[in-house]
Amino acid sequence: MASTIGSHNNLNAKLVLLGDMGAGKSSLVLRFVKGQFLEFQESTIGAAFFSQTLAVNDATVKFEIWDTAGQERYHSLAPMYYRGAAAAIIVYDITSSDSFTRAKKWVQELQKQGNPNMVMALAGNKADLEEKRKVTADEARIYAEENGLFFMETSAKTAANVNDVFHEIAKRLPRAQPTQNPAGMVLVDRPAEGARAASCCS
Amino acid sequence: MDEEYDVIVLGTGLKECILSGLLSVDGLKVLHMDRNDYYGGESSSLNLIQLWKKFRGSDKPPAHLGSSRDYNVDMVPKFIMANGALVRVLIHTDVTKYLYFKAVDGSFVYNKGKVHKVPATDMEALKSPLMGIFEKRRARKFFIYVQDYNENEPKTHEGMDLTRVTTRELIAKYGLDDNTVDFIGHALALHRDDRYLNEPALDTVKRMKLYAESLARFQGGSPYIYPLYGLGELPQAFARLSAVYGGTYMLNKPECKVEFDEEGKVCGVTSEGETAKCKKVVCDPSYLPNKVRKVGKVARAICIMSHPIPNTNESPSVQVILPQKQLGRRSDMYLFCCSYSHNVAPKGKYIAFVSTEAETDQPEIELKPGLDLLGPVDEIFYDTYDRFEPCNEPSLDNCFISTSYDATTHFESTVSDVLNMYSMITGKVLDLNVDLSAASAAEE
Asked: Which residues of B touch A45 (CB under 8 A)?
């Protein structure tokens, strides 16, 4: 399965979220996909798979967004999580130096497990909590530049920069990546025109 | 981990992961641990380095085989019946969205020293060199009977009560010869031995219908589908389901000692000095060796080749069944082959398995008839493993132990074990009446 599949100007791209518990991974996705924010977002239960389509310049990009479902807690993310991912957002909390340290560990993990052409974003979340800031934007920007990521500070609470991160990823995704192998099929319990049935010839 | 759980699941094999997922979806609080640092236990798929570590005691596979990461070699090779129980479970749980599948290209049977395509419909049977011209006509009538048979419509039964009539009697009515019976029983109904002949015919008729309906589903050359990147994806996908519904995952937990109270009921699991309390434990046989007994042994050979299995129309993925009678054995032998087309090997390489229920202690000799069909191989690994089944009384100790994976070619027995365990654990029956006729595959 190629990481981005589609034809002409339609791309499908798997996007994975990484980062420590509490950094705001699910909140970022919920803000992006549903425009919602919950002050006390519970640990991810029941939904950890979203899709959202974005239009950028010449193309539409359909993101399939995978959340960690808590499997990051004891470092038990399965290889399947990284498999075929075209993009990743590594999230940390600007009010926690620990979460930034661990974000760097996730970047290393991704460089080991993920595909080398992956578009990687570093998101310093909770940017609305300026008074509690522990990680400077400069520090994060330098790290990101040295490691081939692009960097933004975000706030799922105020929505600042949230859509921008996803848009920037969509812009950076390689167009018309050659398919390595004819793609497989997804089994669905509805006729083929269902939600996940976006096909290469649609 | 010092919390209390409804269920602690030990081992991340496919059965344990399906159960973990179903129980989490039911709202139970599940802790799932594995002693290994990878998912899948016995049902994982290994890369080359892992394969060499396991069988050669070295982590240096030869460079000419290509990148380790391009290999996903199943430890329990099986294909998935396109209309079978595992597909129902996948659709029921919506786990399908994490997986990509492809049809398996061919289904073949070994008969009188040759490999033949399995005819699955009356039309195919008419073309098959497996039967003479008169036999073909008789077989066609039998296939049409099976195709039309509907359990709920007595007029399709032609006056026979298949819950009483044996398979032998049903087949005798159509006058089929032993050769035809052999491929129907083993290559279509997928029986492993000949006991079915003296059992009620209904089971065999249902199995033949499953084969035919599965074959029709994706218009592939076989009734099977198989996930891209190997079967090791399946336990990972169900583990993700469990996690999405609140299940907690811990890999690389050594020991995992099951603790019992004075009445002999399970009360928790200890690992690395910490004890998690629980009401029930679900595990594979290796976590409770005192509560299982050995019931058999599987012998297999895992081969890396640079060509497809000969005489299978160059199929990049294929199954060949060698019925016991053709080999003078008591149980069937199976060949599997998968390749680049399912992302389990780099381009130009093929992974083939020969497997059977072991009847001797010498897999090299026992597997020879299957190996002879493969032609030259680049690498070969022989392996035997014992099969265990639980011998405890779950109502007394609250331990629910899965049965080891058998040598069958598909997952029907795997899923039936899981469903039985689910009923014992929860007291409920899992309703798998998903609408398979509406189910289809989306090309991504």
From this structure: 244-246
Q: Is residue B398 part of a domain?
A: yes
pTM: 0.90
User: Which residues of chain B are within 8 Å of residue A44 when distances are taken between CB atoms?
Assistant: 244
- Are residues B196 and B125 part of one domain? yes
Q: Which residue has the higher pLDDT, A5 or A129?
A: A129
What CATH code is carried by the domain that includes residue B11? 3.50.50.60
pLDDT tens for residues A163-192?
999 999 999 998 755 455 557 787 776 543
**Structural domain boundaries, residue A78:** 4-172
Residue B437 contacts A where some CB pair is shorter than 8 Å: no
pLDDT tens for each residue of A80-134: 998 889 999 999 999 999 999 999 999 998 988 878 889 999 999 999 999 999 9
pLDDT given for residue A193 in this prediction: 36
Interface membership of B317 toward A (CB under 8 Å): no
Q: Is the domain of B209 the same as that of B123?
A: yes
**Average pLDDT in the B10-27 region?**
97
User: Looking at beta carbons, which residues of chain B come within 8 Å of A6?
Assistant: none
Owning domain of residue B8: 4-43+232-292+389-426
Q: How far is A131 from chain B (nearest CA, A)?
A: 33
* Max CA pair span of chain A: 52
Is A201 a domain residue?
no
Contact B249 A12 (CB under 8 A): no
**Chain A contacts of B440, Cβ < 8 Å?**
187-188, 190-192
Count: domains in chain A: 1
Measured distance CA(B324)–CA(B330) in Å, rounded: 6
- The residues near A182 (Cβ < 8 Å, ≥ 6 apart) are B341
Q: Order across the sheet with B292-305: list the strands.
A: B114-117, B106-111, B318-322, B333-339, B350-357, B292-305, B379-390
CA A25 to chain CA centroid, Å, is: 9
CB-based contact B9:B30 (threshold 8 Å): yes
Looking at the fold, whether B175 and B307 belong to one and the same domain comes out as no
Question: Which of A76, A81, A180 to probe the B interface (max B CBs under 10 A)?
Answer: A76
- B111 in a structural domain: no
Q: Are A80 and B236 in contact (CB < 8 Å)?
A: yes
B132 and B95, same structural domain? Answer: no
Q: What is the pLDDT of residue B180?
A: 87
